[in-house]
């Protein structure tokens, strides 16, 4: 298990050509990945995620701030010292980066050979790794005979070969279809829970974060704009960037256009209730409406799982006499976070 700390880390790239200007890829990011946690960094293209990951394994050098791995400040390390650090860190990639001319077993064996593991020990370790990722019967296959999901399993087995304490995942499921992506994410969860390996992953997909991460950092323009437990960050987004990610995967309020369409179909009062991990009790909400003789239909939204906790927004149409509905709204507001849609 490995702990990662970034303290005000920055990475500037010098200008290219005479007319070019300097690029600040990472701009003063402070981030702590606790030992044994799965931490996701989410951001749109160009936010600085890949650069951040490469700063952690020393493939890029910070131009400001400090990078600390297990209490060891690696910021000023020589290339030789960084190689030793990298040997304790596994990495997987969106495009898998496997050797196509080698078999599955040879791909997994490669880092063992490079690290000087005696030949006699390698076969057993390769078998163990392939069993862990569910590919024991594919040892002699060539890479081109595998599906995308199987290729990423090989990538994971290879990354685990030298027993790293930290796994870096660079858009590991972005090239996969949703079902395969979920299987690979489940495998990564097992890497974390059964082998105790800390995982730092970067992604532009909200579902990836929601499914496996405990903590998340949202990046924009090289900066960490939000950070915290997945549930806290996504159930209460503070920036437009986070709100945009949330709207791709979690139930939201209807957009302005959708609200106009809803208005045409529904004549009653429209309200949105937010359910935040037990903060509002659905039976109480519906009972409150029934007690006041107010009819209800759900017109938009849903309840879902975020970081293992429930979160949702339901837009309801309340049907009844004007005053009756007003009283029901006042009563509901006692039990739930409620917004009357204008
Ligand atoms: N070697 C480099 N030289 C100059 N600029 C770079 C270099 N690497 C990255 N950049 C710039 O730094 C910024 C952040 O890039 P980075 O690849 O880290 O973002 P990202 O969030 O990973 O995006 P993507 O998912 O598209 O790779 C971009 O503006 C990019 O053009």
From TrEMBL:
Disordered, as annotated region: 1-22
Residues in ABC transporter domain copies: 4-246
One example GO MF annotation: ATP binding
PROSITE patterns: ABC_TRANSPORTER_1 (PS00211), ABC_TRANSPORTER_2 (PS50893)
Top-level taxon of origin: Bacteria
UniProt cross-references to CDD domains, sorted A to Z: ABC_MetN_methionine_transporter (cd03258)
The keyword Lipid metabolism belongs to this UniProt entry's keyword annotation: no
Pfam families named among the record's database cross-references: ABC_tran (PF00005), NIL (PF09383)
Keyword Ligase applies: no
Keywords from the named record: Amino-acid transport, ATP-binding, Cell membrane, Membrane, Nucleotide-binding, Translocase, Transport
UniProt protein name: Methionine ABC transporter ATP-binding protein
Record organism: Leucobacter albus
